[in-house]
Design a protein that fits this description.
Shape: globular
Radius of gyration: 14 Å
Distance between the termini: 41 Å
CATH topology: Cytochrome Bc1 Complex, Chain D, domain 2
Largest sheet: 2 strands, antiparallel
CATH superfamily: Cytochrome c-like domain
Strand order of the largest sheet: 1-2
Low-confidence stretches: none
Number of strands: 2
CATH architecture: Orthogonal Bundle
Strand content: 5-15%
Structural class: mainly alpha
Number of helices: 6
Order of helices and strands: HHHHEEHH
Amino acid sequence: MKKSPYRLSMDSGKKVYTLHCVSCHQPDGIGIPNVNPPLNCKQVTGDKNKLIEMIIKGSSAHAEINGIVYNNVMPPNSGLNDQEIADVLTYIRNSFGNKTSAVKVSEVKSASSNLK
């Protein structure tokens, strides 16, 4: 049986997450208290453009989520292509208790072109 585009994106996103994200955000997406934020929060299920920018440029903002401040710097992931970014964001936006819309490659291209 052929996999749906959504399922292919989720499978690919899980691989990208395992290679690039799991060491900081952990296999279950809960992060590390006061260091790396959890991924089951409104920041993940909210504005796609902010997430795309964070993946591409990284972030040094000290995020407060559920009353806890997270201080670690997220490095840029400039080595990921548009498809990998779309897939990993689709994966985290639909894992760890999250359930929201997928991220399309066209959205990544549009957001990344606005960063230049």
